[in-house]
Design brief:
Elements: H1 4-19, E1 27-29, E2 38-40, E3 47-49, H2 59-74, H3 84-93, E4 109-113, E5 119-122, E6 140-145
Parallel strand pairs: 1-3
Antiparallel strand pairs: 2-3, 4-5, 4-6
Helix pairs in contact: 1-2, 2-3
The protein binds zinc ion (2 copies).
One zinc ion binds next to loops.
Length: 147
């Protein structure tokens, strides 16, 4: 995952590409956000992003959404969800209207260590000849295979 300063650079890149404007404040990961993807703080201009969405395919759309709040606020335009300015700009840049639903990670395979019993749920098949237990370096065996 990106660091806070890399995240800030990334938000600025999106801002320049989609709004032709610099993002002059800071962006932070905030793991206390639950279902919202991000939040704009008019008090000091910073943006918070939910780390649970970091790998989500629609993460850029969440950034676009927060940048709509941000740029409209500094342009003294209607920067809130119910404002017309917000709705129009959001549509123009293709930001998400709501935080996308988080799909729970699907577990297809379960491995366990023959030595210590540590379990390793995985989405993808792993090569048990190559990978060993992270705790004791023991051999892994496949317990479940669901497709
Ligand atoms: Zn919003
Ligand atoms: Zn082990």
């Amino acid at each position: 995952m990106l660091t806070n300063s890399e995240l800030t650079d990334f938000v600025n890149k999106i801002s320049l590409e989609s709004f032709n404007r610099t993002f002059k404040h800071k962006a932070f990961w905030n793991s206390r956000l639950r279902t919202t993807g991000g939040r704009f703080f008019p008090k000091d201009g910073h943006l918070d992003f939910n780390p649970k969405f970091a790998e989500h395919p629609d993460f850029v759309k969440i950034i676009l959404h927060e940048l709509c709040h941000y740029h409209l606020y500094y342009a003294h335009a209607g920067y809130k969800h119910e404002n017309r300015d917000f709705k129009i700009l959001l549509q123009q840049v293709g930001g998400s209207r709501h935080a996308p639903a988080l799909t729970p990670r699907k577990i297809n395979y379960l491995y366990s260590c023959e030595n210590c019993g540590q379990e390793y749920p995985r989405q993808r098949k792993i090569d048990t000849r190559k990978y060993r237990c992270g705790k004791c370096r023991g051999k892994l065996k496949r317990v479940i295979r669901k497709v």
